Amino acid sequence: MDVTPILDSLNDVQRQAVTAPSEPALIIAGAGSGKTRVLVHRAAWLIEVEDVAPQGLLAVTFTNKAAAEMRNRIEALLKLPVQHLWIGTFHGLAHRMLRRHWREAGLPQNFQIIDSDDQLRLIKRLLKSLEVDDSRWIPKEIQWFINGQKDEGLRPKHIDDEGDPNRRQQISLYQSYEDICQRGGLVDFAELLLRTHETLRDNAELLKHYRRRFQHLLVDEFQDTNAIQYAWLRLLAGDKGVPFVVGDDDQSIYRWRGARVEHIHRFQKDFPGTRVIKLEQNYRSTETILNAANAVIANNNSRMGKNLWTEGAAGEAIKVYSAYNERDEADFIIGRLNDWIAQGNMRADSAILYRSNAQSRVLEEGLINARIPYRVYGGLRFFERAEIKDALAYLRLTSNRDDDSSFERVVNKPTRGIGARTVEMMRAYARANACSMWCAAGAIARDDLNGRAANAVNAFMSLIERMARETNSLELHDKVDHVIHVSTLIEFFKKDKGEKGETRIENLAELVSAAKSFEPDPAEEMSPLDEFLSHAALEAGEGQADAWEDCVQLMTMHSAKGLEFPLVFMCGMEDGLFPHQRSVADPNGLEEERRLCYVGITRAMQSLYITHAEQRRLHGMDNFSQPSRFISEIPDEYIEEVRPRVQVARPMRSSSPTQRRTPIGGAGSELGIRLGQRVHHKKFGDGVILNCEGQGAHARVEVNFEAAGTKWLVLSYANLDLM
């Protein structure tokens, strides 16, 4: 058998991983080390060499995009279709199982998936129906509590209130939420995994079937698994399964949403005899960038340990710029971007990374003024847009009249004379009679409403019935198109004469295109419409972005994971901002912040700039900060300090504020002015220096006086007294 196509493009360690014996394996894959290649070639090796049937593999990724890429690359490598291969996200694969085993799961066959927005609306209605004060019991916090408990594998009956009345109320609301979802056949994202785990755990024959079928489990981004995801994998693997997990403990940055880096450390205990292989050769970044990343992450104690290296060039030094304030920082970055673009480089090959979204405002303003096109990566996605959710709600009602979330979303959109009082009557009836809003609407229209209100409700119900009847035999895209027009959503958004209305109409047209290009799975036992609706719910939150223009990319450090750019700026590198203030005193939090810094550094392929500001106005407050401790963890030989415009000569890593003098020439040199310095003026009183510009006789400072506000003063005439 010729296995050259599978092995020829791999390095020695990658080949070792791909051809590993059929035993549990933990692949520690450093940034840019080819982890996706290893997963793809491992799947191909198992199918081609180990004679594993494609349907006997289960591969788990964290995004649908990654799953599609893996499937396409396996097909290209083997030169045969592998449509039976179970590749998908945790949620997607769990959904697939629940659709096949809805009876065992205790669900209706046409159960509906609700996304985060629908879930939040449901919780708000629940609080209102129970007359719970939503100023005290905040819906978002209740949502976070429910999802957090589900991610830990806990139902309300499993949670101890610990004698805390507040916790007891949260548990009670969780139970009420569960009751509503069960009655309406609604399944939220967290429920997908929890319900699948419970179904497999409680049905011995079903679990036996899937353990026998999926002997080999391939898992990507293993460091990002939460408790229920890991429990699901362990249950499915059992004692005889062969999990092949790929991850990097140094890139575990999602603790705030339940990811547990300790799963990497537990894996060897839970699966005795695990083979550990480290992928350390990097194919992305220069040697200098990798050495800097290695030096920073080495300060973390809780890690498996590895050292990235490359056969590529040493590359240029990492440039560090110490700005006066956030505007000076933005000006510096934009200046370097203009240089980059003038050299003939693509704007899209550059990225500005920041720790907090609030930092983007000044950067965006600067880019607009400089007329440099940019995009804030991770903006509102297609299936999350309001007009798309409206159309999908109509479609869901044509399939399932008992979908309360969809009913409430569009019962009066476009407006049709069904007011809040009528909707509240429906809720009260549904609650009292344990029925859906649809059933309640019919009942109160018949018995309780006056003629006008009753006619409006009946007209809406007739509209839904008409849509269902008229679209019954249509193709999926024609069905979507028909519902969009009959619902009068097009006319509704046409009333908005501005660009916003036009964009919404274009998005609705794109929904029809999405339905036309959607390919239902012939193995699924559900209608194309229900499959499309499930697909839309699962895709909400995934990157349904428009085609990128050639523009600079702005994003948070978290959003940058998995991406790479020839030119990267890491800005706002100050203690209190990055690492974040709330993590500085927490050893685990600080280690996660350092991992996030490691991720940021390793996004850069050729050039990396790190910037920090002495003074930054953020969240309405002026802050004076030290450079991030992460900068001081990079050895001097990998750094080139870029001097500010006024040739400031100061040690950038000084830990003592008294050492951070800013000689700026002329009168400034004599005074020893520094940013953050308290000064006194005979007329304006006491103040703090915020900014300084110019040299010699033209040197000037911006001072925020306690009584007089902010003033610009020429140093040679100001007669400031240092305090």
Rg calculated over all Cα atoms: 29 Å
Q: Could you say what the CATH architecture of the largest domain is?
A: 3-Layer(aba) Sandwich
Assign a percent range to the helix content.
40-55%
CATH superfamily heading of the largest domain: P-loop containing nucleotide triphosphate hydrolases
Secondary structure category: alpha/beta
Q: What CATH first level of the largest domain would be assigned?
A: Alpha Beta
Chain-averaged pLDDT: 86
What topology, given as strand order, has the largest sheet?
11-12-10-13-14-9-17
Put simply, the count of helices is 30
Uncertain stretches: 541-547, 645-671
| Global morphology | globular
| Tally of separate domains | 5
Give structural notes.
With 723 residues, the chain is α/β, with parallel strands linked by helices. It folds into five domains: 4-101 and 193-281, Rossmann fold (3-Layer(aba) Sandwich); 112-184, Arc Repressor Mutant, subunit A (Orthogonal Bundle); 318-378 and 548-642, P-loop containing nucleotide triphosphate hydrolases (Rossmann fold), CATH 3.40.50; 382-429 and 437-539, PCRA, domain 4 (Orthogonal Bundle), CATH 1.10.486.10; 657-722, Thrombin, subunit H, CATH 2.40.10. The chain is 46% helix and 15% strand. It contains 30 helices and 22 strands. The strands form five sheets. It has a seven-stranded parallel beta sheet. The longest helix has 21 residues, at 451-471. It is globular. The termini are far apart. The relative contact order is 0.10. Residues 541-547 and 645-671 have low confidence and may be disordered.
